[in-house]
Amino acid sequence: MRAEDERYFERLEDQLESAFDVAERAKERGGDPKPEVEIPTARDMADRVENILGIDGVAERVRELEGEMSREEAALELAEDFAAGRVGDYETKAGKVEGAVRTAVALLTEGVVAAPIEGIDRVEILENDDGTEFVNVYYAGPIRSAGGTAQALSVLVADYTRALVGMEQYDAREEEVERYAEEVALYDKETGLQYTPKDKETKFIAKHIPIMLDGEATGDEEVSGFRDLERVDTNSARGGMCLVLAEGIALKAPKIQRYTRNLDEIDWPWLQDLIDGNYYDDEGETADDGADADEGDGEATAENDGDTDASEDGDAADVPEGPPRVDTSEKFLRDLIAGRPVFSHPCAEGGFRLRYGRARNHGFATAGVHPAAMHLVDDFLATGTQIKTERPGKAAGVVPVDSIEGPTVKLANGDVRRIDDPEDALEIRNGVEKILDLGEYLVNYGEFVENNHPLAPASYTYEWWVQDLEAAGADVQALEDDPRIDLEFPAPEEALEWATEYDAPLHPEYTYLWHDLSVDAFRDLTAAVAEGRIERDGDGSVDGNGDDSVLVLASDDGVADALETIVIEHRQRHDDDRIEIDDWRPFVRSVGCEPRQAVADGAALEPDQRPEIELERTWTDGDLSERARTWGHEAEGDNAIEAVNEVAPFRVRERAPTRIGNRMGRPEKSESRDLSPAVHTLFPIGEAGGTQRNVADAAKHAETMSDTPGIVELEVGRQRCESCGTETFKNRCPDCDDRTTPDYRCPDCDQRLEPDEAGRVECDHCEREGTCVETREIDVNDEFRGALESVGERENAFEILKGVKGLSSQNKVPEPIEKGILRAKHDVSAFKDGTVRYDMTDLPVTSVRASELDVDVGQLQALGYEEDIHGEPLTHEDQLVELKVQDIVLSDGAAEHMLQTADFIDDLLEQYYGLESFYEFEDRQDLVGELVFGMAPHTSAATVGRVIGFTSAAVGYAHPYFHAAKRRNCDGDEDCVMLLLDGLLNFSKTFLPDQRGGKMDAPLVMSSRIDPSEIDDEAHNMDVVSQYPREFYLATREQADPEDVDVEIAEANLGTDLEYTGFEHTHDTTDIAMGPDLSAYKTLGSMMDKMDAQLELSRKLAAVDETDVAERVIEYHFLPDLIGNLRAFSRQETRCLDCGEKFRRMPLTGDCRECGGRVNLTVHKGSVNKYMQTAIQVADEYDCRPYTKQRLEVLERSLESIFENDKNKQSGIEDFM
Amino acid sequence: MPLEAPARIVGELTSRGYNAEREAVTRLAGASDPGAALERVLEAVPEDALVVRTEHVETALSADAADAARAEPAAVLDGEPTPSVSTGTDPTPGDDTSGAAPVEMGGSSPADRSVDPASRSLEIVGDMTGQSTGTGEYEDFVSVFRDRLDRLGGKLKGRVNHRPATAIQDMPGGSEVAMVGLVNDIRSTASGHWLIELEDATGTFPWLVMKDREYVDLVDELLCDEVLAMEGSLADDSGIAFVDSLHFPDIPRTHEPSTADRHVQAALISDVHVGSQEFMADAWNAFADWLHTAEAERVEYLLLAGDMVEGVGVYPDQDEELDIVDIYEQYEAFSEYLKKIPGDIEIVMIPGNHDAVRLAEPQPGFDEELREIMSAHDPRIVSNPSTVTLEGVSVLMYHGVSLDEVIAELPEEKASYDDPHKAMYHLLKKRHVAPQFGGHTRLAPEEEDYLVIEEVPDIFHTGHVHKLGFGKYHDVLAINSGCWQAQTDFQKSVNIDPDAGFAPIVDLDTLDVTVQKFS
Asked: Bias regions of kind Low complexity — which residues (chain B) (predicted)?
């Protein structure tokens, strides 16, 4: 590690420590569940693993093993330690296995995700039919977050430990084997699996697996056969088990095999058969199986034959030649939702053009889009909006990049313009008739590596051309240094000169999309150009032709279409029978015409007129070779690029061979995380607070006139003061102010119990679990008034103080109301664990400018930023600096929320804990340099971050490593930030719900520094170079495997001094927040408005088939809604409007059987047919298939039949005419 | 009234290889000399015509108008020419060029079906087409269930000394009590007994069936919302009653089926699924051909229990498995297949869950548009369910969606796909075609419960499960007809092997069944 990195981390840790000290002092004084901070700091993975598991000694052993072996091997090594009792304090065999399995999963998930604690419920010892013991591992749903490898290895570790402690293998009963097969299939149907093993495969695994996989029921759907088995205690699908079996064992068999081979104690010879797919033969017990086996083999052979044929075909030279193209994929269009538009159909002309590169706010599952395009798609795309995409991955977060080409549009006045400025986009937006081309779409090389996707043919862009130019022998350095030359955006004659002088391909700026034009259309276009004339438009503009000339063609639909297809800027003036092209020289030369000075008729020559220029066609149709005439991808002759190359006096490369289809996924997010409904305090008030859960109301509530107001019966944990014996529900004794402890009793004999070392409380006599939860009367009024007084606030300090109905934690310890009062005062709400959170969509950024972060150079310098990315001293707001790994950028909303939280914390420290305030912020600039926690759902570890600035985009920009440390990528994922002291002061494990998944999304441990080798390795695949080599671009035309191309990715620097630095980018962007701040999806009001806008946009986009969009919206949104609601209507439950009681069927009395109140339907006519008319209208307007229309007709008649009285039909006005 | 004329005309036309429009037959029958008129018409019809149309008759008759006027007044065949028509729809000329299949195809003697329409009779009861008055309000649901209790309860009230639920609560502990009500809830207790909650118009009352009592077997058969009577004794605190006996509305053991007075047969089929890629056109054509043979000359009625066509949008991505994607074309094609059936056979059909009507039951018969498409053979189109009485033999026709539920809920030995008629027995026993609400079957609330089996039918005819099965329950013949659709991918995936291409033929004079196989 470089010294400056060390300084950076030490600085963060110092800051963390001083906040920790404040929090520790506060905790000692307050009435919190624990008198100390409950988030332990982990400096490395070993710490995290130990803290998450709560098993002492694990960290030390992990550190010992880490240098010597891989993590997987370490997990097996630790299994030996557990078995031998060297680690962990377990007496039973089951305990040892459990400890080893949990540790293995924690280790393999780097101690970040909740799977080791939430995903493994327990390990039991059961008996085989021969009386021997075997191990049963009880998995739960959250094992999902561990991923397949860790799931599979958990089984291996369980088996290894089993062997070491001396137990037998599991011998599955026949019905259990069958049950596994049925259940895995059921789970796949209900929830879906990434990989679904065939029944045979499942049975094979079940038969051979040496430990029993079991788990909790996760779904409602039950298996139909093999129910009520003795050793399986549910008839529902056990989700955790299914995941481990299918996505773990079945999918990752080769990985497990690598480790079983090295272990003498255990032997999984069947893995080889599983990998080879030999499980068909294995049975051989019944004729039936045998027959199936043959069938299976037969299929396999047939497939093999097919493959051979295919490869032979591939080798054969008789395959028609054509340009390299990727295959279209429609997957991303599935489940299209109303209101979320399609931007481009698969590989459609006019769609986004693939450009390779990484912008500084890019990489790690993101897609760079030009901000002008964001505006032109009616603001549906904003920074952070998720799109579902055709390739290379499935989804990506959108980032604004303005150093790529913008979209080209046709305006109502006939102008066809490329829009490279977001301001222009806004100005002309109302006049856009058609979006001919969406512009470029930036994807970095690393995305292809991460998704293991073959490289797609690259667009011809500046960064490739300049390397072509150099390869052609030009002195590029000299050209770059020449102040009169703009290499990236040259004048037309410069471009022509380079193309001819160096024999390099024509500059991309003047390379048009010839490959989208058919050879026939190209011929026609050439003919039209040859007929064209050069005019002086007289506007004095030089237009880069060296004069103010303009090419004028006769107005013609075919010509206009061709010009729109190749996306060249021009003006269509059909009324004046002319089409004008400004930068005409490269275009004219590309179609094989030569401008010639014409000898004009002397008599007509006006004195001020220069000689006419005539365009001479240099080729005839017969000159084109067979190859050029038939060149094409989908059909012969649909691609004119070869023709262009034959007739033009220079080489022309395919400008945009790869288009990428995509549609909107989720909108971006930046909002505070509230429980639903939002709560200020985790203090229970039952029903007394009304539907608002208003504590003030509860304080006045009385069931009857004779009750004392404010007395509410509540379930809370009983605490006992050790010094004076007082019983209370508070963490401090109200009498002597000593700390209290939970008072556990046996529910049967009321014996007072003490928890054992493992934290379990059990009554020895009755063998029942003890509890401290009791129902008692609490004077909410007293508590509320007392709390107000203790923090010195009055009731008018806040609008409303919301509590919770009841507590869901194990010991039901309420939070002090004081904290809620102060939260309410500052209008922040509490999450289930007592913290205040703010959610943002994750986006990556590796270099930033002070100017875009609303901070000044001084502030950056104060944070340790001294040099810009080029090593120059940092003196100016516009200089780019490389972002440090734990620095984050807050959205405006997050900053506002953090300020409120800081005020709350300051008041809390002063008014509740009696300490000095800590933050004392005046405005948001004070937030710069402050620490926060980043915390992602499904994980249990927070990562410390530091605020560096602000952005108007509704996202959380941070270093990709920061996101990866939280186990997130940036494809539309979102997670939260918490203010450091809020987490330290207010988080308590005691508040967490006592249910499956309750410990997820809670900071059970925090990482104070990021170790790049301990983060999600997806981030290691991000490329970190400033230029991709020419070989890379050439390789894309071969659709090479990305691994075979030499572009440096972050992985290369792992474990070196450079691991925190050197994240270079190929493309800059003016500002990390450009384009709309919010997607139109969020600003438009109703679903109908969104859908109208979606369909309207689909009409404008050349790359979108609006009928298909309408079909899909109807198919995936309206029809399921209509059909589902109609079905629900005719089998619905009913509910009492007065007491809320539900009835499976309408009571025969008509009234509520519980309270006599009014009963009504839960599904009404209105909810059934709300989309009917809209759907019919859309189907009609967008010309959907008769099939779709008829489905709607049939449905409409069904609705009429059910909701209209045949004898009293609603009559239209015509009945009265 | 003598009705020979139309039938004889049809018979004559058929024997010469023509089909005829109903109106054309009427006109011919109404002519002064039908025999001569028929000859003239046949001379005049174009060579390629397969169907004698009204216009042919008109042209032929008007050409010889003068002749006709002078002709001697032969016995005027008066009387109602079209006894079986009540739908009131005008027949429209169908498109006959495509496939109004000539009856002679198939080779076997397309024969002299010497049928005698005069002795036919056909009545419909319980057709709710055009009678759907429910508007989907809460009250509609309440009244339909009340109607069920009233009507089926009425059948039980004579058998037990019943009391309202609220009255039972007030009776002294240990009393002997009885109650009639809808099953509201069935659950097992921790000790393995069964708790059944009965509901009547006053409220609910829990009944306990002890696990060691003889009646415990019947608990397996119970479905929610069926009507039951229970007898037993009240517990000491009057909070629950112990069941001594329970009664279903059931078919009386004394039931004696009616039969036809002559030897006449009906073909009972269902689930044709025209439009599906798996529709078995060959089997259907063989069936139609067979009907033209002498062997089938006694088959004078054809009952179709739903799913004429495969439909559109019945399941996701159905269009990929359709042969005919257009729903109207599906019915047109079906109509063409129907035309292959001898024109003198009376056809009655009800819709099924694939048809283009509402899915919620009762399902009204097809709307005017679809009726017009299928008008060529002039079938009677009535609601699902409906009862049709053929020469005194009543046939309850119901498509059979609830069979899925009966089979799923009841133990395998009591109801299974292999013996679909056994599942039907339970519906007969419960006297309701789809008792359970809220599950698989959908209910559209109407003012009365059309799904109640009010009168005991002689034959109960269903389809839907694509399995052939028949048998008698208390002398009621239950028939589940097979289908005309080969195994679909879906059926393959769930291992259902359909009985396709069978036509059960019932002798209406004996209620004996013979099964004809066409695949």
From this structure: 65-75, 86-99
Q: What tens digit of pLDDT does each residue of A21-71 get? A: 999 999 999 899 999 999 999 988 999 999 888 888 899 999 999 888 888
Q: Are A109 and A115 in contact (CB under 8 A)?
A: yes
What integer is the mean pLDDT of A775-788? 94
pLDDT for res A224: 74
Question: Across the interface, do A1190 and B319 touch by the CB < 8 Å criterion?
Answer: no
Instruction: Give the strand pairing for A727-728 and A719-721.
Output: antiparallel
Does B313 touch chain A if contact means CB atoms closer than 8 Å? yes
Instruction: Tell me whether residue A420 is in a domain.
Output: no
Q: Give the whole-angstrom CA distance, residue B321 versus residue B326.
A: 12
- How far is it, in rounded angstroms, from Cα A202 to Cα A193? 13
Whether B24 has its CB under 8 Å from any CB of chain A: the answer is no
Residues B243 and B258 in one domain: no
User: What does the DSSP assignment read for A708-720?
Assistant: PTTEEEEEEE-EE
The total of structural domains in chain A comes to 5
In a domain, A1210, yes or no: yes
- CA–CA separation, A882 vs A114, rounded Å? 32
Indicate whether B205 and B265 sit together in one domain.
no
Residue B226 lies in domain: 158-247
Count of all residues that appear for chain B in the document: 519
Are A536 and A650 members of one domain?
Answer: yes
> What is the distance between the alpha carbons of residues A39 and A416, in angstroms, rounded to a whole number?
60
CATH number at residue B190: 2.40.50.140
In this structure, the answer to whether residues A507 and A628 fall within a common structural domain is yes
Q: Could you tell me if residue B227 is inside a domain?
A: yes
The answer to whether residue A434 is domain-embedded is no
Asked whether residue A1179 carries a pLDDT value surpassing 90, the answer given is yes
Interface size, chain A vs chain B, as Cβ–Cβ contacts under 8 Å: 120
Could you tell me where the DSSP H helices lie in A462-518?
Answer: 462-471, 476-481, 492-501
Query: In this predicted model, what pLDDT tens digit does every residue of A80-134 receive, in sequence order?
Result: 999 999 988 888 899 999 999 999 999 998 888 889 988 998 999 999 999 999 9
Same domain, A749 and A801: yes
Do the beta carbons of residue A474 and residue A504 sit within 8 Å? yes
**Could you give the CA distance from residue A664 to residue A389 in angstroms, rounded to a whole number?**
9
B239 to chain A, any CB pair closer than 8 A? The answer is no
Give the gap in angstroms from C-alpha B514 to the nearest C-alpha of chain A: 35
The answer on A1043 and A965 residing in a single domain is yes
User: Which residues numbered 61-80 in B keep a CB inside 8 Å of some CB on A?
Assistant: none
At B402, list the tokens: 């609830």
B54-63 vs B34-44: helix crossing angle, rounded to 10: 110
Q: What total of structural domains would you count in chain B?
A: 3
Asked if residue B257 and residue B243 are part of one domain, the reply reads no
- For residue A1127, give the nearest of B225, B364, B442 by CB distance: B442
Q: Is residue B398 part of a domain?
A: yes
Q: Is residue B340 in a domain?
A: yes
Same domain, yes or no: B234 and B258: no
Q: What is the ipTM of this complex?
A: 0.77
> pLDDT category, A286, cuts 50, 70, 90?
very low
Indicate whether B285 and B241 sit together in one domain: no
Specify whether B186 is located in the same domain as B258: no
Q: Give the CATH number of the domain where residue B39 resides.
A: 1.10.8
Strands lying side by side in the sheet with B502-507? B380-381, B346-350, B299-305, B265-269, B502-507, B513-517
Residues 6+ apart with CB under 8 A from A753: A744, A745, A746, A761, A762, A763, A770
Alpha-carbon gap: A1162 to the closest alpha carbon of chain B (Å): 10
Tokens found for residue A980: 């450091």
**What residue ranges in B293-373 does DSSP mark as E strands?**
299-305, 346-350
Which residue segment(s) compose the domain that A815 sits in? 673-820
